[in-house]
Amino acid sequence: MSTHSILNVLRTATVAATLLLMSGGAALAADHLDAPGTQADPAADINDLYAWMSADGSALNLVMTVFPAATDTSMFSDSVQYVFHLNSSQAYGEAATPMDIICTFDAAQTIQCWIGGGDYVTGDASDTAGILSEGGDVRVFAGLRDDPFYFNLEGFNETIAAVVDAAGGLTFDAAGCPALDAATSGVLVGQLQTAAGGGTAVDFFAPLNTLAIVMSIPTTMINGGGDILGVSASTRMAP
User: Fold this and answer.
1) pTM metric for this prediction
2) C-beta of residue 122 within 8 angstroms of C-beta of residue 111
3) Where does the pLDDT of residue 200 fall: very low under 50, low under 70, confident under 90, or very high at 90 and above?
4) Residue 120 above 50 pLDDT?
5) Which of 36, 103, 130, 237 is the most buried (most CB within 10 A)?
6) pLDDT in the model for residue 187
7) Which residues pair with 111 in a beta bridge?
8) Distance (Å, rounded) from C-alpha 195 to C-alpha 189?
């Protein structure tokens, strides 16, 4: 129903974790209010996926946000599986060991999450402290949160308009990329950083909320194939 890839590959370490800014051509970033199919079921529409290591490298933190412009009456779907797809390998590009974390909700918003075959958590996860898994190692929160994604929509639209206006006079290289002089490039970058008319940039998502599934998992539970971790997420109809 909805899929999302993170732009980062995570490298785990015993003492510290390094976030490698590596992406493939098909990787996606923000994905709010997109295709008609997911707009018809906002509880299945993934907004963003976030993943980062704890400071000491002992845990992986995961966040999946769904339901654009959620309100205090918005609910996770009881007919959808919310899935974090993890894979671990010895080196980037090598064969990886997959692991899925599958979460579901009932009509009362009780969550169930299966962390691969290693742990299980269920209960009301809406308290800000979250709830612990049966093994006591995985913590999960699920509920309404301020949308953490930042996007200057006014500046973006101004930049698009400027590019459209200049399109007729642009030249392109063999790869199809336009040639811009430094002054023009500076104007476009400046518009991305300001609001319409040159005012202070405004975060379009600042007043908006979203539903979030937040999870903290020990590194030892998810790096069986190696210390290079890949993360993606999807929603799908529950069987």
Assistant:
1) 0.75
2) yes
3) confident
4) yes
5) 103
6) 77
7) 105, 123
8) 12
User: Which tens digits make up the pLDDT trace of 201-219?
Assistant: 776 767 788 999 999 999 9
Q: Determine the pLDDT at residue 92.
A: 82
* Distance, CA of 239 to CA of 223 (rounded, Å): 28
- Cα distance between residue 60 and residue 109, in whole Å: 24
Residue that the structure tokens 């642009």 belong to: 170
Sequence-distant (≥ 6) Cβ neighbours of residue 225 within 8 angstroms: 87, 88, 89, 90, 96, 97
In the predicted model, is pLDDT for residue 7 greater than 50?
A: no
- State the pLDDT at residue 38: 54
Please give, one letter per residue, the 3-state secondary structure of 140-179: EEEEEEECCCCCCHHHHHHHHHHHHHHHHHCCECCCCCEC
Rounded to 5°, the CA angle 174-177-180 comes to 120
Q: Exposed, middle or buried by CB within 10 Å (0-12, 13-18, 19+), for 140?
A: buried
Please give the Cα distance from 77 to 89 (Å, whole number). Answer: 33
Q: Which among 99, 90, 57 is positioned nearest to 231, based on CA atoms?
A: 99
At residue 51's C-alpha, the angle toward residues 49 and 57, to 5°, is: 175
What's the rounded Cα separation, in Å, for the pair 7 and 20? 9
Worst-scoring range by mean pLDDT, 39-53, 140-154, 183-197?
183-197
